Amino acid sequence: MSKLLIVGTVAFDAIETPFGKTDKILGGAATYIGLSASNFDVESAVVSVVGEDFPKEYLDLLEKNNVNIEGLEVVKGGKTFFWSGKYHNDLNTRDTLDTQLNVLADFKPVVPDSHKDSEFVMLGNLHPLVQLSVLDQVKNPKLVVLDTMNFWMDNTLEDLMKVIARVDVITINDEEARQLSGEYSLVKAARKIEEMGPKYVVIKKGEHGALLFHKDQVFFAPALPLEEVFDPTGAGDTFAGGFIGYLARTGNISFENMKSAIIYGSNLASFCVEKFGTERMQTLTGDEVNKRLDEFRKLTQFETQLD
Amino acid sequence: MSKLLIVGTVAFDAIETPFGKTDKILGGAATYIGLSASNFDVESAVVSVVGEDFPKEYLDLLEKNNVNIEGLEVVKGGKTFFWSGKYHNDLNTRDTLDTQLNVLADFKPVVPDSHKDSEFVMLGNLHPLVQLSVLDQVKNPKLVVLDTMNFWMDNTLEDLMKVIARVDVITINDEEARQLSGEYSLVKAARKIEEMGPKYVVIKKGEHGALLFHKDQVFFAPALPLEEVFDPTGAGDTFAGGFIGYLARTGNISFENMKSAIIYGSNLASFCVEKFGTERMQTLTGDEVNKRLDEFRKLTQFETQLD
After folding, report:
1. Quick check: A307 pLDDT over 80?
2. Pairing of strands B120-123, B94-100
3. What is the ipTM of this complex?
4. Which residues of A touch B205 (CB under 8 A)?
5. For B43-79, what is each residue's pLDDT tens digit?
6. Which residues of chain B does A206 touch, with a Cβ-Cβ cutoff of 8 Å?
7. pLDDT per position as a tens digit, A200-243
8. β-strands A11-17, A25-27: how paired?
9. Is A304 in Cβ contact with B293 (below 8 Å)?
10. Chain A partners within 8 Å of B249 (Cβ)
């Protein structure tokens, strides 16, 4: 069984969408990645930090989903990272209402000995120096995937570029790819980003799907057209967790297999947005994932009569 | 060989993009549809109108591409419909600089006797009353496809709804689908539009591809990721021409076959945008189309290891 190491936030979120609002609920990139990857038979472990206010039931939830929490530091007297946001009516854009770093401000990640030999490493979205520190602690992983966002490009670009230079795959959204590369065309943007380090570039386009680039090869996975998106929070992390979870499960990091990996990522993300927060991911079954995989096939597979 | 009847504008366009500008060149919905459909072995005929200023070389070009022009009225002393537009830097939006209806203002379409029995009818984007008149002149076609736009929703909605009620397939873009249905979710929008008449709804999302809806079935065709889009003019018409051209060529109007038809539509549209106006479509070869079909396969087809 492959080992998958995940670094990222474990947090409280308070979310408002046109369909309702929540109090503080379970959130954070590592949480979504871990829950998503738990749909595959892999040995996941999270490196993160929370405060003493973090409920035991949330820790239990992660463990119940086969996410090892040895590397999840609980800071005595500390408060857990908190994010609050409000989505606009189209659900494609949102305003951040509040961000309280709390224990995340001084976080020094410690990779547990048991997972320093992880073959797969997922650097979830947080400070590039934390991501770098994790990279320094692992031994010769088979595949490192980086997720990041425009905030780090704006504020810590130099550190971010050091991480980018050391990863195999980067996942960012279309606007971020344009910002990072200075190219409007996503084909050109991906090529420039490959020159920065990653051999594979995944560009997420939200409801418009995701593109996978590698040299002159390209693959596209659509998002499943949904009647209603309820809450997009965590969709990108869930996508990343499905992507690396599938790769870790199959142990195959070929471009062909990455095609299926981003289909699985889209598949899992399509569930995530159906309810608030992690709610839907907590009840998700393998049967449901398999059925939806068939929907993705019907959505994209074709045979012409003119061959 | 199936007969394909096309009604739409045949026009002069003057186009400005970030890459350059043209004088008056050949344009119009029926022109693009006809050139696109000419990639399939079908008997196409255009119903349209031009002025005496329309060059013989353009008429010859249509005939050379197996588009019958018996139904293309040339108005003595009249001037051809003229459209001029300027694209913004992202090429997704444009300003109309000039529209001169000219001979189009009083156009009364006459379907030639030789094509009243056309099995396939493409109602290209123009006034709904012209589209209705063509529908009244054809005998029991096998499939009618309608292309329209927000201009007719804003100005002639009542007439447009009469056309919509009588067609089998409608192709519109995402914003137009939302406007027509009052639904933001494209899944819901498509369902509402099906209730207005069309059994199949094609929603075009430009660089984000196209969706085909029919009852509870859905198919997605991506746009080919291109390094550079040179001029988007006519891409939607070329898409429609490829869609109906493929259906007319195969004679099969099942949902499964429509999947391939929208892949062919996307395929042909991906060529159209590579040069100004109809320039690329004039030199396009079957080999190039087949090669790009392989690119679409590589872009979308996948096999998982977990089945």
Report:
1. no
2. unpaired
3. 0.93
4. 208
5. 999 999 999 999 999 999 999 999 999 999 999 999 9
6. none
7. 999 999 999 999 999 999 999 999 999 989 999 999 999 999 99
8. antiparallel
9. yes
10. 306
Position A30, amino acid: A
Nearest Cα of chain A lies from the Cα of B116 at a distance, in angstroms, of 27
- What DSSP string runs through B61-89? HHHHTTEE-TTEEEETT----EEEEEE-T
A174, A203 Cβ separation under 8 angstroms: yes
Token pair, residue A228, equals: 């209603």
* B188 contacts A249? CB cut-off 8 A: no
State the pLDDT confidence band at A55, using cuts at 50, 70 and 90.
very high
Name chain B contacts of A220, Cβ cutoff 8 Å: 209, 222, 225, 299-300
Contact B304 A293 (CB under 8 A): yes
- B269 backbone dihedrals φ, ψ, rounded to 5°: -60, -30
Out of B90, B185, B303, whose CB is closest to A260? B303
Cα B97-B99-B101 angle, rounded to 5 deg: 175
Length of chain A: 307
Q: Cβ contact (<8 Å) for B226 and A264?
A: no
B222, closest residue in chain A (CA to CA): A220
pLDDT band at A90 (very low <50, low <70, confident <90, very high): confident
B90, B222, B252: residue with CB nearest A305: B252
Q: A211: helix, coil or strand?
A: strand
Domains observed in chain B: 3-300 (3.40.1190.20)
In contact, B1 and B253? CB cutoff 8 Å: no
As given in the structure block, the two tokens for residue A244 are: 């690396």
Residues of B in contact with A256 (CB under 8 A): 303
Angle between helices B255-272 and B29-37 (to 10 degrees): 110
Q: What is the pLDDT of chain A when averaged over all its residues?
A: 97
Q: Which of A302, A303, A307 to mutate to test the interface with B (most CBs of B within 10 A)?
A: A302
Chain B residues touching A208 at Cβ < 8 A: 205, 208-209
pLDDT tens for each residue of B8-56? 999 999 999 998 999 999 999 999 999 999 999 999 999 999 999 999 9
Could you tell me which of B49, B105, B108, B103 has the C-alpha nearest to residue B79?
Answer: B103
What is the rounded distance in angstroms from the CA atom of residue A169 to the CA atom of residue A212? 10
